[in-house]
Amino acid sequence: MLQKLLPLLVLSLLLSCQQPPERNCTNFKNGRFSFTTEINGENKTTTFLRKDDLEVDYFEGKQDSSSVRWINDCEYVLRNLNPKNKAEEKSIHIKILTTSDSSYTFEYNAIGDKRKFKGTAHKIH
Predict the structure, then answer these.
(1) Residue 43 confidence (pLDDT) above 90
(2) If pLDDT is split at 50, 70 and 90, which confidence band does 39 have?
(3) How would DSSP label each residue in 11-43?
């Protein structure tokens, strides 16, 4: 019995010792980024410039601004400064999950909405 449990114990110890994903979130607090998502079957790209407590988004020739409130180094809340409808009045919670040298993977949702979505933003140098 012990011979059967020992390999499982060793395997579980090895798996639990994995390094957590890299999260150098402070590298992405400011900069110019692009994000591509699928909308109605089409890939759409947004570029945005984030500096301190302001984010300016550029999408299909339109510009929009949001305030940025950092909760911690890896989470922030976006609030549209000029909402045009009820949906745009909802703040968006963003949590950076992993980072690389030039991109970060994040999870986001409208505050109060349980549905969460994932995306990857790429830093434009």
Answers:
(1) yes
(2) confident
(3) HHHHHHTPPPPP--GGGGSSEEEEEEEEETTEE
